[in-house]
Amino acid sequence: MNQNSASELHRLLPGVPKIESPFFETLFANAESHLQQIAKQLHTYGVAAIKFPEAEFDQLVEDIKASLTKAFDENSMAQFRAGRAADLRILNAWQFDANVRRIAANQSIINLLSKLYGAQAWPFQTLNFPVGTQQALHSDAVHFNSVPERFMCGVWVAFEDITVDNGPLFYYPGSHRFPIYTNEHLGRCVSTLPSRPDQTMYEPMWQALVDAHGIKPKKFLAKKGDALIWAANLLHGGSPHINRQASRWSQVTHYFFEDCAWYSPLFSDPFYGQIYFRKLINIQNGHFMPNRYAGWEIPNQFIDSTRSTQPDGPYHFDANAYLEANPDVAQAGMDGLDHYIRHGHAERRRLR
């Protein structure tokens, strides 16, 4: 097909990223060879390795390391080196470090992602690490998803050489093609749980998926300046950091795409009235990005009405309504929230 035919196919299905489109071959048939190669890797494997396009990369890295080293708690670093658990990361360092922001807002990366996905990319989050994350197998899509789905990707950049000893990334090639399984597929209505969930309730399912399909993990043994783009639903994680005296400096930037709604499925039960919308700022220009649906901005009053406001107990838990719905609890003189957390959830008591 010619280019006009490819454009028409994209107009027929704009709510699917180009790299995951059923019309993939046609959409990239006339693309330049370098773009075709990257697109093919993402389409087939869910990842693509590139060299980070920054002429002053080495100096940026040294400046970032010097700046962020002071931000890490020395006790946590000592715990890590001693082999104990420690969460060593800085979330959204772009807010105070111009060099972190420069890497996240790299125009060549944004242009590349926009071509690959067929929509304008924008960075919304950074994570900086001095050591390996050792994260369990997971999909980013339960944390950051979009409507239409899959318009999210991550770009991980190595600030130094990565070996098997300092916690390389691992990923399961082709796992991005799995459906995006959310709470309803697990039979969980998290809005009724006594406390907020985390991804551990998904991990056995994810492991069973790769086992059932016989997919073997691959490690990304990067050189300094190598970057890995991965698709929203790719199953990936961090390998054990064997040499605890060695560093593993890196940066992750997460990107969404314009004309979407952005939310966290892990905290959402849309058909139970709870959607954890993301209210985000475009790192590149500092502008707030409105949630949109098919070209229309989603009203803020709807976003606010569906978002969780209850840090403990079920979302929007109303103790008086719970006691009215369960008069035996009220007659016993028990606190509504305490009863629900201790007994009511397991007994599937009505919330109202």
From TrEMBL:
The prosthetic group or cofactor this protein requires is: Fe(2+)
Q: What's the protein here called?
A: Phytanoyl-CoA dioxygenase
Q: Which PANTHER family match?
A: ECTOINE DIOXYGENASE, PHYTANOYL-COA DIOXYGENASE DOMAIN CONTAINING 1
Task: Classify the source by domain of life.
Answer: Bacteria
Signal sequence: where? none
Q: Which Pfam families match?
A: PhyH
Which InterPro entries does the record cross-reference, listed alphabetically?
A: Phytyl_CoA_dOase-like
